[in-house]
Fold this sequence. Notes:
The structure is a single chain. The chain is mostly helical. The protein has 8 helices and 3 strands, in the order ααβββαααααα. The chain has helices spanning 12-18, 25-36, 63-68, 71-90, 92-98, 108-124, 131-136, 142-153; strands at residues 40-43, 51-53, 58-61. Strands 1-3-2 form a 3-stranded mixed β-sheet. A hairpin with a 4-residue loop joins strand 2 (51-53) and strand 3. Residues 80, 84, 111, 114 line the site of zinc ion. Zinc ion is lined by residues 80, 84, 111, 114.
Amino acid sequence: MARHPISGRLHPTHRAVRRLFPKNVYVQRLLAKLESLNVGLGVSTEPGQWLYHPAYRTLWVWEPDLSTQPLSYLVVILAHELGHVLDFDEKPLYRAITKDLHWTQVPDEIECSAFVRGFWLLQELQIPVDLGQYLEMIDTPMALQVGWELLAAHPWAAQPFTFRPWDAGLPASVSLLAAVPTPACAGPARP
Length: 191
Ligand SMILES: [Zn+2]
């Protein structure tokens, strides 16, 4: 949990981990979303792994990633983890399935669903990552499955992202995500 149930203050561990994140406007927007859902931050002890556990409402982050990975990676992994948060809140079945599982045993369906939700969340929060860029950050074959599900439900997901930070009067330095090259092909073919 991010906040004390009575005082409403953010937990000191949460605040310490939050300070380690880049000051990028999109990263901060995703962190604010986590806090609005009362999810706390902690430090992961599983090498390379970011883990969310619904019973603790805590996202354990792999700290070295915060200083070594590009912003696009941090944005996509935060969106994915927020996808898990929303899924677990909404789908008791997912909670039941994963209750006694180790993180390595989580079914692909639950991982895919978190990526699909994560993509819509980026659109909702007006974070400029288009489908091609998003799928590039995901391992195959999961990327194919995520792309297929997004396009099957909403073919317009393949549209290029129209929001541009400079339209909102923000300095160009916040548009670092735009540095990610757009692949020639925007994911798998339309179904
Ligand atoms: Zn996951």
